[in-house]
From TrEMBL:
GO terms for molecular function: protein-disulfide reductase activity. The active site is at C28, C31. It comes from Candidatus Coproplasma excrementigallinarum. InterPro entries: Thioredoxin (IPR005746), Thioredoxin-like_sf (IPR036249), Thioredoxin_domain (IPR013766). This is Thioredoxin.
Length: 103
């Protein structure tokens, strides 16, 4: 999954393809556990959505805009708006279920 800046994020969510964004921090243990799960699952859903990650410490205004108080925070964006969110670590099966329900 590609790490992107706030500007890249804003451009990407304005597109037509849904975006799945992992809001994380380098110091966050559960974020480090979720990263390889999302990386693996993203390959299966690459045709349905763009998968990216944003470091909340590098983009605090995005965290504030979307009310991100706890991480990892995985969100699905469609047409520029947040369509779904999940907070905390999820095992692979839960990630797939979340994506199946929201993409």
């Amino acid at each position: 999954m590609k790490k992107i800046s706030e500007q890249q994020f804003n451009e990407l969510i304005s597109g037509t393809k849904p975006v799945v964004c992992d809001f994380f921090a380098t110091w966050c243990g559960p974020c480090k556990m979720l990263a390889p799960v999302l990386e693996e699952v993203s390959a299966d859903y690459a045709d349905k959505a763009e998968f990216v990650k944003v470091d909340v410490d590098e983009a605090p205004s995005l965290a504030a805009k979307y009310g991100i108080m706890s991480i990892p925070f995985v969100a699905v964006f469609k047409g520029g708006d947040m369509a779904a969110k999940s907070i905390g670590f999820m095992p692979k099966g839960e990630v797939k279920q979340f994506l199946d329900e929201n993409l």
